[in-house]
Design brief:
Elements: E1 6-10, E2 15-19, E3 24-27, E4 30-33, E5 43-45, E6 51-55, H1 59-63, H2 75-85, E7 92-96, H3 102-111, E8 116-121, H4 124-136, E9 142-146, E10 158-163, H5 174-177, E11 178-188, H6 191-203, E12 207-213, E13 219-222, E14 225-228, E15 238-243
Parallel strand pairs: 7-8, 7-10, 8-9, 10-11
Antiparallel strand pairs: 1-2, 1-6, 3-4, 5-6, 11-15, 12-15, 13-14
Helix pairs in contact: 2-3
This protein binds S-adenosylmethionine.
Length: about 240
Amino acid sequence: MRKGTKILLLGTENRYLIKYRKEKFHTKDGAIDLAKIKKFGDKVPSANGPVFTAVEPTLFDLMKKFKRGPQIILPKDAGLIIAETGIGEGSKVIDAGTGTGWMATFLSKVVGSKGKVVTYEKSKINHKLAKQNFDDIGLKNVRAKHGDAYVDIKEKNFDVMILDLAEPWNVSTMKKNIKTGGYIVAYLPQISQVQEYVSFCEKNEFIIERIIELQEREWSVKGRISRPKSHSIGHTAFLIFSRIL
Ligand SMILES: C[S@@+](CC[C@H](N)C(=O)[O-])C[C@H]1O[C@@H](n2cnc3c(N)ncnc32)[C@H](O)[C@@H]1O
């Protein structure tokens, strides 16, 4: 195992994301001797007993360790955006605002090396934070731009635009940025914002394909306990799928 390789130590109760080095790693399960790991799949005991399996972290494992800025787009909503708009290998996608960079990172994986993700962020602090998150996991196909998405988006004829912004109707360049038939997805927490976005679409003759709120309910199943978790995700946002003609 090479020094610096990211490894997820996966136990039944706990998990730890580490960078490999030939040292002891101290955890609440006691010390784990990393020198015993030679390859992914190896099992190592911790001093207090629990055994951990060294696995290659997924992109999502890595994202969970991102430095957090503003509210992120969660997998339930990111997955729906990707599926509904047909984003795939080679797609060109604009994302704004970048925030913590979760949506841009999900997109990066899906569009692959032939695709492009350009993400805009107005706040210097959030732009820097997201860039650091992207660099930490070595993303190559995401271009993080520091700019105001309402006026600064330069890209032309992209396939999809995802707007996690308070006033998406203020993005003045949409028609140039997105190809005919391409999608603009507005991610809006408030129904009053949805109403304003819908009337913007009507004025501009954009088609509204769907307006969706997606609810997720996670369950606990352990022995005889089998019920929805008491702390589930509540409302995140409404997703408005619109298309430019
Ligand atoms: C809720 S966060 C985005 C989270 C992001 N979608 C994610 O999944 O991590 C909204 C971001 O938009 C940024 N923002 C607000 N107005 C903007 C504008 N006009 N242009 C670019 N970014 C803007 C904010 O600074 C904030 O970082």
